[in-house]
Amino acid sequence: MSETLARPATLVGSRVPRVNDRKLLTGACRFVDxxxxxxMVHATVLRSPVAHGRLRSVDVSPVGDDPDVLLVLTPQExxxxxxxxxxxxxxxxxxxxxxxxxxxxVTRYVGEPLGLVVATSRAGAEDAxxxxxxxxxxxxxxxxxxxxxxxxxxxxHPDWGTNVVVDIPRGDPGEVVTAAVDGSPHLVSMRFxxxxxxxxxxxxxxxxxxxxxxxxxxxxxxATQVPHHARDHLAETLGLPFDAVRVVAPDVGGxxxxxxxxxxxxxxxxxxxxxxxxxxxxxxxRNESFLASVQSREQIHEARLAFADDGRFVALHTxxxxxIGAHPSNVGAGPAFVATGMLEGxxxxxxxxxxxxxxxxxxxxxxxxxxxxxxxxxWVRERLVDEAxxxxxxxxxxxxxxxxxxxxELPYTTHHFQNYDSGDYVGALDRAAELIRTDAPHxxxxxxxxxxxxxxxxxxxxxxxxxxxxVNFRLGGYETAVVRMESDGTATVLTGVCSHGQGLETSLAQxxxxxxxxxxxxxxxxxxxxxxxxxSSTGTIASRSxxxxxxxxxxxxxxxxxxxxxxxAHMLEASPEDLEMQGRTIGVRGVPxxxxxxxxxAEKVWLGWDLPEGMAPGLEERELHDPADISYSxxxxxxxxxxxxxxxxxxxxxxxxxxxxxxxxxxxxxxGQIHGGVAQGLGGALLEDMVxxxxxxxxxxTFMDYLLPSSGEVPDVVVEHTEVPSPFIPGGMKGMGEGGTxxxxxxxxxxxxxxxxxxxxxxxxxxxxxxxxxxxxRQRLGGES
Amino acid sequence: xxxxxxxxxxxxxxxxxxxxxxxxxxxxxxxxxGQSLVxxxxxxxARPSVLIDVNRIPGLDGIEVREDRLRVGALVRAAGLxxxxxxxSALPVxxxxxxxxxxxxxxxxxxxxGNLAHxxxxxxxxxxxxxxxxxxxLVSRGGQREVSWRDFxxxxxxxxxxxxxMVAWVELPRPPGLRLTFLEVARRHGxxxxxxxxxxxxxxxxxxxDARIALIGVGGTPVRVPAAEESLIGGPLxxxxxxxxxxxxxxxxxxxxxxxxxxxxxxALVAVLARRGAAxxxxxxxx
Amino acid sequence: xxxxxxxxxxxxxxxxxxxxxxxxxxxxDFLRSELGYTxxxxxxxxxxxxxxxxxLDGAAVRSCLLLAPQADGAEITTIEALASEGDLxxxxxxxxxxxxxxxxxCTPGIVMAVLGESEAGRDLDEVVDDVLAxxxxxxxxxxxxxxxxRRAWPELTxx
Lengths: 785, 287, 159
Fold this sequence. Notes:
The complex is a heterotrimer.
Chain A: H1 21-26, E1 41-47, E2 53-59, E3 69-73, H2 75-81, E4 85-86, E5 98-99, E6 106-107, E7 113-119, H3 122-131, E8 133-138, H4 145-149, E9 164-171, H5 174-182, E10 186-194, E11 197-198, E12 206-212, E13 217-222, H6 227-238, E14 245-248, H7 264-276, E15 280-283, H8 286-292, E16 295-296, E17 299-307, E18 313-323, H9 334-341, E19 351-359, H10 374-392, H11 396-403, E20 412-413, E21 419-420, H12 425-436, E22 448-460, H13 465-470, E23 479-485, E24 491-495, H14 504-516, E25 523-526, H15 545-572, E26 579-582, E27 585-588, E28 596-597, H16 598-607, E29 620-625, E30 631-643, E31 650-660, H17 667-687, E32 718-722, H18 739-742, H19 744-755, H20 770-781
Parallel strand pairs in A: 1-15, 13-14, 18-19, 24-25, 31-32
Antiparallel strand pairs in A: 1-7, 2-6, 2-8, 3-7, 4-5, 9-19, 10-17, 11-16, 12-13, 12-15, 17-18, 20-21, 22-30, 23-24, 23-29, 26-27, 27-28, 30-31
Chain B: E1 7-9, H1 14-24, E2 28-31, H2 37-42, E3 50-53, E4 63-65, E5 69-73, H3 78-83, H4 85-90, H5 92-98, H6 104-107, H7 112-118, H8 125-131, E6 135-140, E7 143-148, H9 149-152, E8 153-155, E9 158-159, E10 166-173, E11 179-186, E12 193-204, E13 207-216, E14 223-224, H10 226-232, H11 239-252, H12 263-282
Helix pairs in contact in B: 10-11, 11-12
Chain C: E1 5-12, E2 15-22, H1 27-34, E3 53-56, E4 59-62, E5 75-77, H2 90-97, H3 107-119, H4 124-131, H5 143-158
Parallel strand pairs in C: 1-5
Antiparallel strand pairs in C: 1-2, 3-4, 3-5
Helix pairs in contact in C: 2-5, 3-5
């Protein structure tokens, strides 16, 4: 049973303009690179130039006596002063569960941090870095996942005898799935490849680290999504007491998963600050970020969909090979786990399962990126569904309709133990199918046209703690909110989640203001500083800030409001049910003259004067919300495209989203999240590709080679919503931040296969670049054009 | 990253600049628009000892539209050339091609001389220069010389400019009756071309009198395709003629594979673009 | 290691500044670190993302592609100049109303580019199709940025 809001919502559900826009629009914001402390110096990171090699020496002597160079840290010095970083999400049987801050013997990817140079200027530090000689005996390197499995593959850890780091079954036992497949009259079997991506928020990573040697305290301003998590890991790796470390997230310019953990290079900068006793700033370069920040996505799926004559799905299976780079990152095989876990999407199967293997290669480790495995799952599943439809000559919307879990079948537990909560998946499908059709006439311009659908379920609101324990994601899944009504009648909301573009300053304020019954402008949301924010183990990831963080705010604000009303009732000698809030006063309903200002009331409560029997002073409530379960949002996307057969170019003529994320707090913000997610999804579908050669040498490390979508590549996305509330989140909200990225590749791929069915069986790999599409067209249609 | 150390000079006259080039040429880079050079400095891929900023030199930013040719000074900004109304009517293909050059913000700074001297194989302007048989005039302390486009573009990012020389202007002939168009395909709006074609045609008595086909993105330098041009001349410019031309363009193109596209794709693409350009001109629209 | 330096005089948002700096200092860093105008952000130093866009003698330019000495004697306008006496500039107001920003990191560059190119006489379609395409935003998906520019346009071109 969901906890509904205490009173009819007014701000929740409104397109409230954001409260923090002014400072961002006028340049009054403070991102980490805007921070300037007295005596501050600048670092640059020393990185491995080779994909695989034995480190012989790091010779810093050429730097000489340059007075502007203050410190050089070698890998040896770093290793001696730090403990390894623990992996946070560890799979059963995972061969590696931590990684060193810097390697001392073998380096395993180009860009691996080895040490640090600190100077009075960034340019000066780079000058010194250029002089340092890193002597490495190169070892054979492996740059692709299939090659990493090969008999003769170079091994990243020879003592393992393999590069496989995780190998686990998923879903139903293999024999069960095989039996179901064998018993079906029809089968579509395809090999899919999802390319490697680089997250690229427009603000790169960075920090300013300040060690106060008098108080023995480390303060770090860090561009992060997870201040407490970073604090904990900093304390652990540097051997400091937890309360001697303070992490502050300033204004943060986007994260998308790349800022969801503490990185080795960030730790090395903190170490330097402790050695130098001066604040040290390090800002990641863009070209550095391609190799230094976690990459993402790369997976190969050998997948099969078995179905009956009437299109009913019988079995779904995938053999997933994930390339997770040179070592498991903090989430390691997590995206592969979620890719299999969410593979079934919104459909029913008699059986579903798979095999999950992750392999190490000599490339940057992969980690979280918006969508976190669901995008790969959608690509595989939705393409299989369309090919099944094609085999039986059934309309793609119809085959989905026949197989979707119906609203009255929810809650529903999948073969991968996902407990889908509430919704109307068919409703979204029907709406998207309707919206994509337009009466606009087509010019006959020689291009082929097609429509593609992509339906998905989005795993949101990561928590609860017991689920995280079950899957060994070693963080607590709760969120805590402290809501305090000050003695002037305004309110402060302290939350453990922190905004990096998603507008929590506004949306959480809307939730609190509605609960408290006071105007929005009287509420301030505070976050990001571990010294004041309530502890958040998991932080701002996995579409959980509103569902889990917001749920805590609903409860805490509700309790403050309830206490306020009891105090008011006592003072007005009335019963709480007869009172109402009117802007900034509380009075008896229907008796206008009875009102007392909220601030007067709040002041009294904080003084402890005239309180009812048994009521303690103060108006501050702390609520911890450990959600009952994961929340599941959903949508169907549809794309209408035109394909130029001679050039392979795809133009998106129309793109629609029919979406449901439960109760919407701020529709403007939700739509913005969807637009941004779709843009990233289109980037992955058509443009982005983090390319390495077979020996692990990166080929795309600038914005000239790695292509992010610009305005010209993203059409005006049409978004419509329904709001089937969450049955157990206070307030009825679900999460939704990642959904936009999940569907686009499959929608475009399905549209391409619809437009050019001759190449349908080849549409298995992204990005759908003009060169690739043209090659497929040539293969099937022949000729030079 | 930040640039490596260099010495900075900003000469106020051409003579001063040429003196500096004579003295430092080998280890100097010329800074004009900076839109190509500064990223290379920032990546530490370019490490000149001396940076010669030529932006304050007067007299190199003139645009002269004459009956038979267009002369564009090396320091003319792309945005200025794009906006020039006389150029737009005299040689509309120039504006057409410039619209593909990056974005207005880049065009505000990038110079014509700098663009040509950088000689990116996928840059748009070299196609126009090649199609019109343009010439580049180089100056040094020792004098000046006029170099045909063919001799100027030597290879990828390589021109005939000697270390002690700088581009002074480019001249584009205006053959009477020749109409031109430019097409390219890029991954994103404003990106360098995957391949591009500048096509020019003039007609006399219903047949093709002059044909120009210049390609970019399919070799280290812009390429003319005489075999394809010849196949058009004297003919009626019909579908069959266009297909023949397309095939000859395909045969002449020698592109490479890279992360953005395969060689096979580029070869086919550039031929399609040449054909479409010719077809567009044949229909009578050239803008 | 200190390189060759120059005294650079610039007028920023109407205020004159003079500072000695290394000749290799990028204009973006000169404005941000030496003169304290941190509203202009740096996203790539490749000249691709556009976050660093400022107006140089009225023209929108990428400040990461200019060396500080090149700006000697120039008039520079940064995002800090736009809001006056507490009121947002119409372009800023439009971004606010249309939710054309999320994390805000790329926003100043886009606002300055639109401002500069509108003042240079480009028409609305050119600005939306061509100028905006020269900026990278990873948060908004551009839909609302285009809406913000269209919303502000009548006011922008009236001024």
